Amino acid sequence: MTKLSHRLTRILTRLLAPLALTLAAFGAISLNPQLSAAQVAGTGTITGTVTSDTGQPVSGVQVFLVGRGIGATTDADGHFTIRGVPPGTYQLRAQRIGFTPRSTQVTVGANQTITADLALPQLATTLTTQVVVGYTTQQRRDVSDAVSSL
Length: 150
What we know:
Blueprint: H1 3-16, E1 22-23, E2 29-30, H2 37-40, E3 44-52, E4 62-65, E5 71-73, E6 79-85, E7 88-95, E8 102-108, E9 113-115, E10 118-120
Parallel strand pairs: 3-9, 3-10
Antiparallel strand pairs: 1-2, 3-6, 4-5, 4-7, 7-8
C-alpha cells in the first residue's frame, strides 16, 4: 500500500468508528460492528456460505438482517459470519450486483450459532445506450496534436 492509501485508511477508520462500522481489507465497508464482550454475551451468531446458482462461491455479497443494521460481506470463498445477533426471528438478505437478491427467515437463540446457506441466481444486466456529444469553439490550429484529416 502507498503512503496515501495508509493515510486514507486511517482517516476512514476514524470516521467510521463512531458509526460502529469497519473498513474491510478489500476496501468495502462492513455492516458488522466491532462488539465488546459484554455486548456479545447472550447473543447469537449467523454463519454461512453464499453460492451462485452454479454452485460457485460468490465474494463481495452483502448479507444482512433486514431492519437491524447488522450484517457482513462474504469473503473470497463466499463465507460470512454475523456476530452479536440478539435472540429472535429475522429476515436474512443477501444481495450483490449481477445476482438476484434472496432472503430467508432465520431464528437465532442466545449463545447459539446457526448456519444459513444461500444460493443467488445470476441476473443478466443490460446497460442502456449513452450518447456523448461535444462542442467546441476552438480552431484546429489552436489545438495541439490536432489531426488534419481522418
